[in-house]
């Protein structure tokens, strides 16, 4: 069997991890229990099903060549009990229990994923916190992996197209095009690097969005569910896309939250938000469960007091990003990973992790979900909160998904830097209420 090396971007995510800044993403799925013992049944099914998913049985190992690279290999001692856990918690809201679990790094000697079934005091409800290392999957890839553990709910995937054998003659005929593509890649890398330099140093960033040079390592998690109909009402009344509205809600909520905390104004040009953009094609994505990411970079207009003008500013910035495309601009920095030798990722990982603070101040990411109902042991999912990893030196990451007519915001914060994360969730609700009033 041919060795499957980690792609450059997957390798970068694997190398930049530290104990205080684990690089796993998560999803907190809340279920309506289909009868007594729903949590126990879910844990049993996850334990039984994960062994049948090849990608969940593979771990990451360093390889001799290329120097600095890593590859996937089957875990000969794979034990589902080391990945699926039943956690009995006294918390009525599962987000409180999810915080400490998100803070705990995955075991790097094992396949890099976990599923924690959270059984709270309400027998009619339970939750599952899925954790997938970013080297294993991006948000869409993680969704595809989690779906393999649910009841039969996913549409059949089209058969993989065989890769045609390349003969020497065909390679020679393609050589001029290959060389031209390499030259284009170098030009693209230089252009992205120049855009990163133009993005400038962080200026006027609210102190609440920073967590010192390293951060505490502790994590807090909060979530908020909003009615998609209200978001669409704002979109129709003010223009733009649903995603524009969701980003503008973050900007307005941060402004409200910071004001309540007593953070001084003005906030200059505003904090820089990195908006990841999936490069997967088609409804099932393109090939594999690893990362297919680029991104946009924009300033969140916190200094703008009018909510509709804030939304207009976000819309204009996103339009500019889309016109340039996801392969250009400072937000496309993830594409630079393709131009780094594996040894560079190995030696430079810690430096890259510290440099994230120089590029962006907050992550705002969106994970699209399909419209059908996920179930596990007959228990339907009623809420899905995506959870993003937290970069070194930053105190807050925001992820958002839409499921069954509801928008779910998942907030992950450095617990020491942001002890009032629930207040930020409340500010999101207040911001949507004000925008609805403005367009009604």
Which segments are poorly predicted (pLDDT under 50) over 5 or more consecutive residues? 153-198, 282-287, 330-337
Please give the alpha-carbon distance between the first and last residues: 61 Å
Class derived from helix and strand content: alpha+beta
**What is the annotated CATH architecture of the largest domain?**
2-Layer Sandwich
CATH class call of the largest domain: Alpha Beta
CATH superfamily of the largest domain: Nonribosomal peptide synthetase, condensation domain
- What is the CATH topology descriptor of the largest domain? Chloramphenicol Acetyltransferase
Relative helix content: 25-40%
Instruction: Please give the number of β-strands.
Output: 15
Count of separate DSSP helical elements:
10
Beta strand %: 15-25%
The general outline is globular
State the major sheet.
6 strands, mixed
SSE sequence, one letter per element: EHEHEEEHEEHHEHHEEHHEEEEEH
Mean pLDDT: 81
| Biggest β-sheet: strands ordered side by side in the sheet | 5-6-7-2-13-12
Radius of gyration, in Å, reads 22 Å
Number of domains: 2
InterPro entries: Acyl_transf_WS/DGAT (IPR014292), O-acyltransferase_WSD1-like (IPR045034), O-acyltransferase_WSD1_C (IPR009721), O-acyltransferase_WSD1_N (IPR004255)
Region (Disordered): 269-288
Pfam families: WS_DGAT_C, WS_DGAT_cat
Pathway: Glycerolipid metabolism; triacylglycerol biosynthesis; Lipid metabolism
């Amino acid at each position: 069997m041919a060795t499957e090396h980690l792609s450059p971007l997957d390798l970068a995510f694997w190398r930049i991890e530290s104990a205080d800044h684990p690089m796993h993403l998560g999803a907190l799925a809340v279920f309506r229990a289909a009868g007594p013992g729903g949590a126990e049944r879910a844990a049993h099914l996850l334990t039984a099903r994960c062994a049948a998913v090849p990608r969940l049985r593979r771990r990451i190992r360093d390889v001799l060549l290329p120097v600095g690279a890593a590859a996937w290999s089957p875990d000969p001692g794979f034990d589902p009990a080391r990945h699926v856990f039943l956690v009995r918690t006294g918390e009525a809201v599962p987000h409180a229990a999810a915080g400490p679990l998100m803070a705990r790094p995955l075991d790097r000697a094992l396949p890099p994923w976990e599923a924690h079934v959270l059984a709270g005091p309400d027998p009619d409800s339970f939750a599952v916190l899925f954790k997938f290392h970013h080297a294993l999957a991006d948000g869409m890839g993680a969704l595809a992996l989690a779906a393999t553990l649910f009841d039969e709910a996913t549409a059949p995937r089209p058969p993989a197209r065989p890769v045609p054998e390349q003969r020497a003659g065909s390679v020679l005929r393609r050589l001029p095009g290959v060389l031209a593509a390499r030259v284009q890649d170098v030009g693209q890398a230089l252009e992205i690097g120049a855009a990163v330099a133009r993005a400038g140093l962080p200026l006027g960033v609210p102190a609440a969005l920073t967590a010192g040079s390293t951060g505490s390592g502790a994590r807090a998690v909060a979530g908020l569910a909003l009615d998609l109909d209200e978001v669409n009402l704002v979109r129709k009344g003010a223009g733009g896309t649903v995603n524009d509205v969701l980003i503008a809600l973050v900007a307005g909520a941060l402004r409200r939250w910071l004001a309540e905390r007593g953070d001084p104004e003005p906030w200059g040009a505003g904090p820089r938000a990195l908006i990841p953009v999936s490069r997967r094609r088609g409804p099932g994505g393109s090939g594999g469960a690893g990362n297919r990411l680029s991104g946009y970079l924009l300033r969140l207009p916190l200094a703008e007091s009018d909510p509709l003008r804030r939304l207009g500013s976000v819309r204009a910035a996103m339009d500019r990003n889309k016109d340039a495309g996801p392969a250009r601009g400072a937000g496309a920095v993830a594409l630079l990973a393709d131009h780094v030798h594996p040894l560079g990722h190995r030696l430079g990982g810690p430096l890259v992790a510290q440099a994230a603070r120089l590029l962006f101040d907050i992550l705002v990411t969106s994970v699209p979900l399909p419209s059908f109902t996920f179930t596990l042991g007959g228990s339907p999912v009623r809420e899905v909160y995506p959870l993003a990893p937290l970069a070194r030196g930053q105190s807050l990451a925001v992820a958002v998904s839409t499921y069954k007519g509801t928008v779910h915001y998942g907030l992950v914060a450095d617990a020491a830097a942001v002890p009032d994360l629930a207040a930020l969730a409340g500010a999101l609700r207040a911001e949507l209420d004000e925008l609805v009033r403005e367009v009604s």
